């Protein structure tokens, strides 16, 4: 099926509250475990690594990273201030030192973070982007030599019928706004072959794409 892009930002207050209240803990913990595996498989990380969570939303993954990498200089970036206000509140409650920034991804390449990151992570960001090459441009620009990268996202099913089946399996009792977002996100997601082509065009030969479960793909590896 053809990709159907969705809005790049989640700014609607009803949508933000529903997303922040939802229990994504299993997926969040799994993403954190993938990061742990990536760190363990590579060369030794710096004593005070610089870590970036792109499209951090209300901070689900960022908070987990802060706990697992307490010495890290950790930054969470999102384009929706309404999401970041929740992330900042959560971090303050847990007494975690995280720099949350409301930034447009387009402003990041060549900026103050260029060439500085030791670990770049995103969870469910790629499918939101109308120009997916932007994620790979940001990744390449901000990565320090040997930077670890892990981008986890949905992958597009082959039909609308399969999208409806996945929604019925995974979010049968969720609020309507989350069910509709899930359907829209699956339709906006990319197929693994499309992401592999994006990586080739970006010259990110150190990153690979793998399929995960019935609806995810994972991009991981080293840059530089």
- Oligomer class: single chain
Low-confidence stretches: none
Shape: globular
Question: Rg, please?
Answer: 17 Å
Indicate the CATH class: Alpha Beta
Q: For the terminal residues, how far apart are their CA atoms?
A: 35 Å
Strand numbers in spatial order across the main sheet: 3-2-1-4-5-7-6
CATH superfamily caption: Vaccinia Virus protein VP39
**CATH architectural label:** 3-Layer(aba) Sandwich
* Count of separate structural domains: 1
Order of helices and strands: HHEHEHEEHEHHHEE
Q: Briefly note the structural class of the backbone.
A: alpha/beta
Q: What is the tally of helical segments?
A: 8
Describe this structure in words.
Helix content is 42%, strand content 21%. By secondary structure, the protein is α/β, with parallel strands linked by helices. The chain has one domain (13-223): Rossmann fold, CATH 3.40.50. The protein has a seven-stranded mixed beta sheet with strand order 3-2-1-4-5-7-6, with helices on both faces. β6 and β7 form a beta hairpin. α2 crosses α3, α5 (133-142) packs across α8 and α6 crosses α7. The radius of gyration is 17 Å and the shape is globular. The relative contact order is 0.16.
Chain-wise SSE layout:
Blueprint: H1 13-21, H2 25-41, E1 50-54, H3 60-68, E2 73-78, H4 81-93, E3 99-102, E4 117-123, H5 133-142, E5 143-154, H6 160-170, H7 176-188, H8 192-202, E6 207-212, E7 216-223
Parallel strand pairs: 1-2, 1-4, 2-3, 4-5
Antiparallel strand pairs: 5-7, 6-7
């Amino acid at each position: 099926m053809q990709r159907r892009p969705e809005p790049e930002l989640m700014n609607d207050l009803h949508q933000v509250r529903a997303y922040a209240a939802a229990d994504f803990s299993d997926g969040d913990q799994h993403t954190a475990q993938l990061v742990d595996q990536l760190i363990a498989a590579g060369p030794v990380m710096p004593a005070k690594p610089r870590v970036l969570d792109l499209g951090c939303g209300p901070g689900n993954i960022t908070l987990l990273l802060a706990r697992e990498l307490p010495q890290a200089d950790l930054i969470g970036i999102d384009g929706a201030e309404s999401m970041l206000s929740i992330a900042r509140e959560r971090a303050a409650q847990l007494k975690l030192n995280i720099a949350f920034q409301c930034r447009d991804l387009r402003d990041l390449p060549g900026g103050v973070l260029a060439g500085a990151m030791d670990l770049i992570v995103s969870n469910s960001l790629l499918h939101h982007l109308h120009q997916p090459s932007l994620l790979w441009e940001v990744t390449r620009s901000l990565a320090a030599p040997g930077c670890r990268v892990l981008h986890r996202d949905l992958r597009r099913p082959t039909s609308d019928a399969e999208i409806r089946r996945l929604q019925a399996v995974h979010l049968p009792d969720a609020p309507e706004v989350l069910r509709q977002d899930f359907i829209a996100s699956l339709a906006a997601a990319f197929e693994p072959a499309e992401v592999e082509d994006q990586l080739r065009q970006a010259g990110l030969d150190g990153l690979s794409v793998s399929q995960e479960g019935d609806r995810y793909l994972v991009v991981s590896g080293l840059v530089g």
